[in-house]
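Hi there, hope your week has been kind to you so far. It would help a lot if you went through both lines with me. No rush at all, and the record is pasted right below:

***
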Amino acid sequence: MADIKRLQEPLIIKDFFKGKVIIIVGARQVGKTTLLDQLNTTYKNKKILRLNADDSTDIDVLRNKDFTQLDGIIGDNEIVLIDEAQRVPNIGITIKLLVDNYKKTKQIILTGSSSINLLQSTSEPLTGRKFTYQLYPISFEEYIADKGKLAAIKSIPSFLRFGMYPEIIKTDSDDEKIRLLKEITSSYLFKDILEFQEIKNPQVLNDLLKALALQIGSQVSYTELSNLLKIDSKTVERYVDLLEKSFVIYRLPSYSKNKRREISTSKKIFFYDVGIRNAILDNFNTFDKRTDLGHVWENFVISERMKFREYHRIYATQHFWRTYDGSEIDLVEDREGKLFGYEIKYSDTKKKTPSKWLEYENGEFGLINKENLSGFIY
């Protein structure tokens, strides 16, 4: 099966040869290398140098070189692709030398599977010198563009079980999907965290992820997690931060303007891909056997909405909203000077606007279910 074309590709190409490095970040196995292949094909008439920092030889090519040495390595290549660049020591300084000297004559592209190392190490040296893109698993909209709307809608039950990693999408057999997901979660999920962050007990990461997987759609307490896992709450918070920077999970903070009435310090945690979440719990049950369908659907829709906003450059901050007396909205987008509240249900057709939400003069409210996804995630 051919690879699905990514919506980021034309956006990235528009940024070529503008005198800035292009940085593409995202979890391992979400298709960054495949995207480089597609860019490679688009520019097949240009000379391209491709390096992979998962290879120690390629790391040595880039490590601690001055511009004269780097220029000798790059030669007359017009595009330089560096995969998994977070593994190269001082990569930010190296790329700064290239960008400042080549300006618009050559295009440098980096990919990285961890913002812990790549974005942090390039932040200061590349200030004003970079465009950053986040690549997610295949989006619902990308699937529609490749397979058609009807096929995408029919595939929703499969997406909710197995997620949307590219290799999973390309695989027909349910058993093979499960095998691949287990391989991803055991071999790739923690690779950069364990390599760079001095994690003393990897099992704690697994236990923490299982606890978080059981709590998607619910408010998360670091104190409760620390008691459960027998580690201190600051360690829990650090591990959650590392998992977020490795694009495994993301935090949804609460929205509040009235601290006496609305919960202001809580957060929910979701997975970038529900297939990864299900693999961590070893729960690939079908619809009729799922007790967590509502939470999985909420996670799926919020993640797809995140992809949609990213790919269409809809700039917003996202939150959930809850009052102390129990009124709640699953997703709140703060954008364009307005608040957009969305209740996310799989099959509900009606939902009354919470009365306290009506007090926000700039607030709107809507229900998102499986029948009205158009315009929201595609």
Remarks:
- Residues 8-134 form a domain with the Rossmann fold fold (CATH 3.40.50.300).
- The longest strand covers residues 328-335.
- The first helix runs from residue 8 to 14.
- The chain has two domains: 8-134, 140-312.
